[in-house]
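Hello again, I could really use a second opinion on something today. I owe you a coffee for this, so here goes:
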Amino acid sequence: MKILISADMEGATGVTWPADVLPGTPQWERCRGMFTSDVNAAVLGFYDGGAEQVVINEAHWSMRNLLLERLDARAEMLTGRHKSLSMVEGVQRGDVDGVAFVGYHTGAGTEGVLAHTYLANSITGVWLNGTRASEGLLNAHVVAEYGVPVILVTGDDLTCVDAAGYAPHAVTVAVKDHVSRYAAVCRTPARTAADIRAAAKEATALAVRREPVAGGPYTVELEFDAEHLAMSATVVPGVRRSGERRVAYTSETMYEGIRAFKAVTTVVSAAVEEQYG
């Protein structure tokens, strides 16, 4: 049994505001330990449940945040940027039985601690075939194309609610309760580590590959906080204007859809000016 952990940081224990997740800040350095604790707890729980291999895909910002030296020696970690499937890189190899979303968060334009979708700001909403989409929902559709279920989701309490929409059978763990985008009632690392480890052990029973889901075509629509960002996004082939601050594109598969999404967000981030956005 092989488990892939997609590890993001905004939904980690103790994380509540931008400096907690921005590489190079003192707060980020402090929160790296709690982020690593969450991920390691999931690793331990999956091995407790009978997993034979656990691979962690670093999925936050520079994708160089976790402290490798603090992870269980049995685990392996894929760290660094520029990966074909970004946050769920590795699922396409065909040997993964279950995926865990650790440290996830809600989507742009919704309630939740550090809520966003790919870009910290600029994007005010994302929809997949008309349904508002978080990173979790987008990635869940990607892994479904490879017949891999999402078995565990951790983050704030609203992330757990969001997960019920795209992975209704997954085990969820709330490590904090949302108060505002930059505030939360947080549990201690010792408590959340115990909760995540127990949940991962339980979730291991769900790690059973299924028939790949061919659910396309998929139409993705993005809304931005400025008109010029929508204009900039149309440089990506197939992306069309769908409103003054909106663009949309259609892909036959989510493999193509998530790669196009990455291209759009990369172009848009380069078009943001420091003061006016």
